[in-house]
Write a structure and sequence with these properties.
Elements lengths: L13 E5 L10 H11 L3 E6 L2 H13 L4 E5 L5 H15 L4 E4 L14 H29 L3 E6 L11 H21 L4 E8 L2 E2 L1 H6 L5 H9 L7 E2 H12 L10 E4 L16
Parallel strand pairs: 1-2, 1-4, 2-3, 4-5, 5-6, 6-9, 7-8
Helix pairs in contact: 1-2, 1-8, 3-4, 4-5
């Protein structure tokens, strides 16, 4: 018999996962979180700019007997964020969890970066989380009287090394997380943040134009565990922070990096 303290509180709940697609059958951070939540009995709305990628995640969940739906959206647009939340509540009657998982990279110093690129990265990496949370939080309060949010940042926020705009955006995610945790703790809503390290995900390797084995080994060696993380590692962290097992944790930054940030900083764009 399951004891009350062992109940994860995920079964029968509803989650919205932004950036929940991934190339092919690859496992990115968002897809992993969506699958793991569904395995725990959570109904999942998978959002992605590419409807085919979101639908593939839904198909993978359905193949395991889980419940999910896909919706194409651009989370940099306020109207799309509002529509996402409304669609989730309309389908399942409530919203309990939000995984803010959308992000893009950028490299270069403030001298090298173009202002329009800086604004675009901040819009995608920070404003999207602001907008989705703006509509998700009232829905959580109205339909569930509680909730939990996880925002995905990066170890670049903790260890700058030549990715100034990206670092700035991911540091802002941490600030947003802490502010929302304080603002909405009284509403029974917890807000936490994950900082992933080197992850083997479809997005990272597509952006690297087919990373060589040597480059991949170098990424692995950046970790004190001498291995890369995967989307599953981030997904498990997301599921934990959304669950009742983290009921007394809010406003915190969980670093999932195999110990990369325990080492001295290196100017290397491949370890984030």
């Amino acid at each position: 018999m399951q004891r009350p303290e062992e109940d994860t509180g995920l079964a029968g709940k509803v989650a919205l996962v932004s950036g929940g697609g991934a190339a092919g059958d690859g496992i990115g951070n968002g897809r992993a979180a969506a699958i793991l939540l569904a395995r725990a009995g959570t109904k999942v709305l998978v959002a992605d700019r590419d409807p085919g990628l979101a639908e593939r995640t839904v198909a993978m969940i359905a193949a395991e007997g889980g419940t999910a739906a896909a919706l194409a959206c651009d989370v940099t647009q306020e109207a799309d964020c509002k529509r996402l939340v409304e669609a989730t509540v309309a389908r399942w009657g409530r919203l309990d969890f939000l995984d803010n998982n959308v992000g893009v990279g950028s490299r270069g110093s403030v001298v090298e970066e173009k202002p329009e690129q800086y604004r675009r990265v901040m819009q995608i990496n920070v404003e999207s989380m602001f907008l989705l949370s703006k509509y998700a939080i009232p829905a959580m309060i109205r339909t569930a009287n509680c909730g939990a949010i996880v925002n995905i940042s990066s170890i670049s926020a903790l260890r700058p090394r030549g990715l100034t705009t990206y670092t700035t955006s991911k540091a802002a995610v941490i600030g947003l997380t802490r502010a929302m945790a304080v603002d909405h703790g009284g509403d029974n809503i917890r807000v936490n943040c994950i900082c992933p390290g080197p992850m083997y995900t479809p997005m990272v390797y597509a952006g690297a134009n087919g990373m060589s084995e040597a480059a991949r080994a170098e990424r692995a060696n950046a970790s004190v565990l001498r291995t890369e993380g995967t989307g599953w590692d981030v997904g498990h962290a997301v599921r934990f922070l959304l669950s009742n097992q983290a009921r007394y944790i809010t406003g915190q930054v969980l670093v999932v990096d195999g110990g990369v940030t325990l080492r001295g900083p290196e100017r290397d764009s491949r370890d984030h």
